[in-house]
């Protein structure tokens, strides 16, 4: 017998109940009430579960309760190029887009995140200015193999490298031998290497005319460059039994080898991005460098194959590769304009608009944009609506439409490839650890936390 009362938090079933006729759970979308306690999902209850006394109930009606999206490919550029994009603006765009956790890429900020001192600088820059949770990828450069283990221990989620020029001088690419050596180091401590996969020899051999014609730009970044790099990564992942992730896959020719490698047990995964799935080369106007990214947006037939690969699981996730720059760097010349498309706020409606037209469901969307990216990065508390996870949600009206007005978006510069498009799916509110951080255009103060690999 004991004279101690049970702890108060055990007696209290929830702080909050979120009720919707459409809750997207890992099993299926169904009517349910989600009980939240101390920022976590306590239980997923039947729709008509009684509301305990003293518990606030938010009835969302027919709006969809999605897990907060997880975007593992974001370039925030802060500090150093914060005039391109910064933590405050990027994470507001994330919150407005239903994204509750993101992982920042190691390049474009100064310093790049290629050592533990730089990681500390990044964390300090972010700490008080983030509206959603933020973690960091490290960078693998030709000269920093000795830093990788310390960065891993300091909590980065993995290491990014390039095989071709990155676009910024301070982040050089690895050659094949350096790739093999860095991958061996990363595999040695069970880490993950994430790779911008374009083969520099194929890029050097491609015609490079420059200028305003999109067809010329597309010819300068051929599928062969991606195909060759993916083949190399498959071979190295197999040889070293290492975990490798292909970033922003665009070439559908690489899908067959990727699928075969995965069937054979090679530890390789892949992502693609909203722009490859919703925009086509055929429709890019000449001089419209808001559509420039590397690898490039390809033809409609290529896009159809990417959708099939998402459906069959060859491609795991859809993440933004949000990479803004000031408008003046988006010159009309595709060869020299900054490459990067800003879609942190628009990925959800862009993908949902195309996905529903192709017969995909909200369950698919949640898997591609929340569950799979969380699994990729090892974010065990994020990505699905289930007991024990963080109470991170996006509340979506999937039938409402919005017409994209670049100047109304939250990221730093009003440049977007989606300007003027009418999209389905309006994010009504976004919740982070049980608190509503965004609703109908209004934000709370920054409540994001820094994330580390656990
Ligand atoms: Zn990127």
From TrEMBL:
<dbReference type="Pfam" id="PF01979">
    <property type="entry name" value="Amidohydro_1"/>
</dbReference>
<keyword id="KW-0659">Purine metabolism</keyword>
<dbReference type="GO" id="GO:0005737">
    <property type="term" value="C:cytoplasm"/>
</dbReference>
<dbReference type="GO" id="GO:0008270">
    <property type="term" value="F:zinc ion binding"/>
</dbReference>
<comment type="similarity">
    <text>Belongs to the metallo-dependent hydrolases superfamily. Allantoinase family.</text>
</comment>
<keyword id="KW-0378">Hydrolase</keyword>
<feature type="domain" description="Amidohydrolase-related">
    <location>
        <begin position="64"/>
        <end position="435"/>
    </location>
</feature>
<dbReference type="InterPro" id="IPR006680">
    <property type="entry name" value="Amidohydro-rel"/>
</dbReference>
<keyword id="KW-0862">Zinc</keyword>
<comment type="subunit">
    <text>Homotetramer.</text>
</comment>
<dbReference type="InterPro" id="IPR050138">
    <property type="entry name" value="DHOase/Allantoinase_Hydrolase"/>
</dbReference>
<protein>
    <recommendedName>
        <fullName>allantoinase</fullName>
        <ecNumber>3.5.2.5</ecNumber>
    </recommendedName>
</protein>
<dbReference type="InterPro" id="IPR032466">
    <property type="entry name" value="Metal_Hydrolase"/>
</dbReference>
<comment type="pathway">
    <text>Nitrogen metabolism; (S)-allantoin degradation; allantoate from (S)-allantoin: step 1/1.</text>
</comment>
<dbReference type="GO" id="GO:0004038">
    <property type="term" value="F:allantoinase activity"/>
</dbReference>
<dbReference type="GO" id="GO:0050897">
    <property type="term" value="F:cobalt ion binding"/>
</dbReference>
<dbReference type="GO" id="GO:0006145">
    <property type="term" value="P:purine nucleobase catabolic process"/>
</dbReference>
<dbReference type="GO" id="GO:0000256">
    <property type="term" value="P:allantoin catabolic process"/>
</dbReference>
<keyword id="KW-0479">Metal-binding</keyword>
<dbReference type="InterPro" id="IPR011059">
    <property type="entry name" value="Metal-dep_hydrolase_composite"/>
</dbReference>
<dbReference type="InterPro" id="IPR017593">
    <property type="entry name" value="Allantoinase"/>
</dbReference>
């Amino acid at each position: 017998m004991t004279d101690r009362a049970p702890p108060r938090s055990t007696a209290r079933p929830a702080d909050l109940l979120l009720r919707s006729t459409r809750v997207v759970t890992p099993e299926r979308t169904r009517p349910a009430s989600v009980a939240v306690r101390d920022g976590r999902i306590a239980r997923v209850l039947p729709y008509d579960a009684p509301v305990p006394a003293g518990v606030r109930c938010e009835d969302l009606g027919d709006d969809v309760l999605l897990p907060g999206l997880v975007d593992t490919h974001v370039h925030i550029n802060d500090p150093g190029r914060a005039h391109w994009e910064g933590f405050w603006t990027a994470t507001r765009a994330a919150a407005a887009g239903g994204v509750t956790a993101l992982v920042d890429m190691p390049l474009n900020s100064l310093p790049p995140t290629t050592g533990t001192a730089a990681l500390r600088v990044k964390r300090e820059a972010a700490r008080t200015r983030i509206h959603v949770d933020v973690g960091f990828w490290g960078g693998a450069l030709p000269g920093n193999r000795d830093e990788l283990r310390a960065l891993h221990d300091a909590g980065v989620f993995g290491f990014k490298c390039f095989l071709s020029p990155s676009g910024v001088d301070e982040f050089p690419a690895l050659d094949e031998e350096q790739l093999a050596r860095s991958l061996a180091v990363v595999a040695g401590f069970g880490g993950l290497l994430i790779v911008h996969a374009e083969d520099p020899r194929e890029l050097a051999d491609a015609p490079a005319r420059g200028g305003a014609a999109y067809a010329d730009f597309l010819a300068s970044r051929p599928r062969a460059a991606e195909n060759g790099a993916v083949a190399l990564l498959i071979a190295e992942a197999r040889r070293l039994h290492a975990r490798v992730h292909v970033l922003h896959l665009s070439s559908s020719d690489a899908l067959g080898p990727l699928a075969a490698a995965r069937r054979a047990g090679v530890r390789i995964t892949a992502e693609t991005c909203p722009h490859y799935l919703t925009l086509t080369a055929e429709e890019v106007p000449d001089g419209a460098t808001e559509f420039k990214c590397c690898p490039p947006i390809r033809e409609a037939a290529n896009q159809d194959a990417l959708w099939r690969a998402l459906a069959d699981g060859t491609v795991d996730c859809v993440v933004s590769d949000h990479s803004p720059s000031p408008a003046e760097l988006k010159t009309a010349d595709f060869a020299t304009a900054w490459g990067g498309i800003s879609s942190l706020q628009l990925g959800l409606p862009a993908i949902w608009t195309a996905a529903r037209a192709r017969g995909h469901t909200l369950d698919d969307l949640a898997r591609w944009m929340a569950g799979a990216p969380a699994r990729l990065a090892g974010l065990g508390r994020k990505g699905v609506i289930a007991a024990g996870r963080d109470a991170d949600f996006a509340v979506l009206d999937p039938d409402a439409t919005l017409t994209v007005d670049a100047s109304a978006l939250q990221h730093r510069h009003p440049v977007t490839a989606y300007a003027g498009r009418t999209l389905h799916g309006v994010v009504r509110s976004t919740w982070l650890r049980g608190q509503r951080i965004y609703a109908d255009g209004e934000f709370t103060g920054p409540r994001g936390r820094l994330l580390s690999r656990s």
